Amino acid sequence: xxxxxxxxxxxxxxxxxxxxxxxxxxxxxxxxxxxxxxxxxxxxxxxxxxxxxxxxxxxxxxxxxxxxxxxxxxxxxxxxxxxxxxxxxxxxxxxxxxxxxxxxxxxxxxxxxxxxxxxxxxxxxxxxxxxxxxxxxxxxxxxxxxxxxxxxxxxxxxxxxxxxxxxxxxxxxxxxxxxxxxxxxxxxxxxxxxxxxxxxxxxxxxxxxxxxxxxxxxxxxxxxxxxxxxxxxxxxxxxxxxxxxxxxxxxxxxxxxxxxxxxxxxxxxxxxxxxxxxxxxxxxxxxxxxxxxxxxxxxxxxxxxxxxxxxxxxxxxxxxxxxxxxxxxxxxxxxxxxxxxxxxxxxxxx
Amino acid sequence: xxxxxxxxxxxxxxxxxxxxxxxxxxxxxxxxxxxxxxxxxxxxxxxxxxxxxxxxxxxxxxxxxxxxxxxxxxxxxxxxxxxxxxxxxxxxxxxxxxxxxxxxxxxxxxxxxxxxxxxxxxxxxxxxxxxxxxxxxxxxxxxxxxxxxxxxxxxxxxxxxxxxxxxxxxxxxxxxxxxxxxxxxxxxxxxxxxxxxxxxxxxxxxxxxxxxxxxxxxxxxxxxxxxxxxxxxxxxxxxxxxxxxxxxxxxxxxxxxxxxxxxxxxxxxxxxxxxxxxxxxxxxxxxxxxxxxxxxxxxxxxxxxxxxxxxxxxxxxxxxxxxxxxxxxxxxxxxxxxxxxxxxxxxxxx
DNA sequence: AGCATCTGGGAGAGCGCTCTATCCATCAAA
DNA sequence: TTTGATGGATAGAGCGCTCTCCCAGATGCT
Lengths: 350, 350
Known about the structure:
The structure is a homodimer. By secondary structure, chain A is α/β, with parallel strands linked by helices. The first copy, chain A, has 3 domains: 3-67, 434 Repressor (Amino-terminal Domain), CATH 1.10.260.40; 72-179 and 317-339, Response regulator (Rossmann fold, 3-Layer(aba) Sandwich), CATH 3.40.50.2300; 183-310, Response regulator (Rossmann fold, 3-Layer(aba) Sandwich), CATH 3.40.50. Chain A is built from 13 helices and 12 strands. The interface between A and B is large, with 59 and 60 residues. Chain B binds a DNA duplex through helix 3 and helix 5.
């Protein structure tokens, strides 16, 4: 009796225990649990009973050890290591963009019963930590959101043989899967709209030049504007934050007081522009039209409601997750990339 | 030779391999890696060399199996299962509150080299999944952010013997650790400020009545206002979202057009109020003063800048994490709770 | 010198699970 | 009856690691 008690206290119940109670072998219990091969219905029932009566819970580590599956995926928020630009450290998580990515990842992961483990690799040390974690097989694959084009993470993952999918194309082509937005098209959409509205003295608030998406949005915008006969546009670079947007528009307004249109490379910066324009007594959209990018919650947070280029972040993140799951299930397949099309959402600001 | 090649392809290198290369035993290599007990510096060096030359990476699952440590903590976003109120599903992640929690968790986790695994337990099925994952020992403990007071998760975790810490006190007292804000004090702070400003026809936008924090904020506000001689205040309930705040204030303004002060139980709803007040041509703070709650990014996103009651979410989340780590390290210790004090941040809106 | 203590290292027993190889009935076909 | 199949269950060999013994040699003390 004391033996029983002691073991009940010290050890948690194992397959062995369940097998003993059910009067079958360990292997049979395992088969019932994993639902493979034919097991006599009567025995199945008695095993189930034994599981319930013992309160048995399989041990994840032991299972992982033999199946070589961790049962979790990593969501890596990765920076350059220098972070000269872009929001640093924990601030990344405050960006509505991050929440939308998580949301999309969950949409795709939920049916599979998997959970994402979050990793922040914004400094060399943190990156090594994350990489070690992944190499040890603590996660079956990685989804990477880079905040910087020079991010070495994708290449390192590739080298380590960790299945990975990127949110956003890498700067230099790599044989690695990714989802991305046709950012140039998005810039074009914004340009066409502002031009059609009659804006002729347009400025742009660019994202960090180290971020490919930011460059592409600006390039698309400038190309389209050039086609409309406006080849030279003043622009200021900011860090994708609202405060950065405020500083950028302030500078632009001093240098170009007659501005009648603003394109910001994301909604947060556009919102900063809106706030400063209001401080300066400019009416939006009457005096100055403003177009943002993303269609995040920031777009509808204030007044006027922001006209913006929609990036379907949730869908993109869900697709990223699905691609990763597919890579894990069928490692032999090559890299694939899916490019989403942006769309213009016209609200009040332009 | 073919034997060597095959094993190099099929299996990843193990401790055994490293030991063979270094000419020592498995145990010694393990000791070097984990840095325990004295190992001759010369041997240490040769082991390190062998590790480098073989590209050895320890197997996390095998280690977990014997140490009974997963090396990760769960961050559970948990709902009631019904979700009659409060933001549902993936929307939780869009709330700036969530980002701040994640940020705080990372602050505390980073020095430990641990990573949080995210779990969404908003429906009974998802809750079971999450619970199973935790019981299997895939995480060493759980941090729980409940979106509803009736949330059964805390009690279930307690029952399962999973170390856990809550963000926000449970509705009914449980022997479980938590961090929380003195929400009543926060409500009082807002009331005193509005009253001192001269507001006498004040309305409140409450959070979901199923959320304890929301009730406490409102109660604190009402108590203080009653002490100031204003015992009856109109209020409307909303769901902590901006859209909900907009609906609530719209209703309140119809019923009480002479309103001169608004207290919202969080910044998102306050921002909704700001937007609608602007649509109605009311000036803030001249005609109507508005006080929010949280001091999230939403408070400084628009204009006027929001006067709000600050909740130090990041610090609270970091503390929650530290408490959990402590519980895991010293399971014998009892539950502790840490209550943070709110503070008023006066900006433009009141 | 004799005994106790300490230090550095090895052998090997598990941790709890999966899964292959194997075995034993049972039953259809030759 | 013999010979295979075949369904249903078992035994047992690992998966890769940690950690408790255990041992040999060096050191300290009386």
